[in-house]
Amino acid sequence: MLAKRIFILTGAGVSAESGLSTFRDKGGIWARYSIEEVASIQGYERDPVKVLNFYNMRKSTHGGVEPNAAHIALGQLQSHWAERGGSVTICTQNVDNLHERGGARVIHMHGEIAKARCHDCNALAPYDGDLSLELGCGACGRTGGMRPHVVWFGETPLFMDEIYEALAAADLFVSIGTSGNV
Question: For the whole prediction, is pTM greater than 0.70?
Answer without folding.
Answer: yes
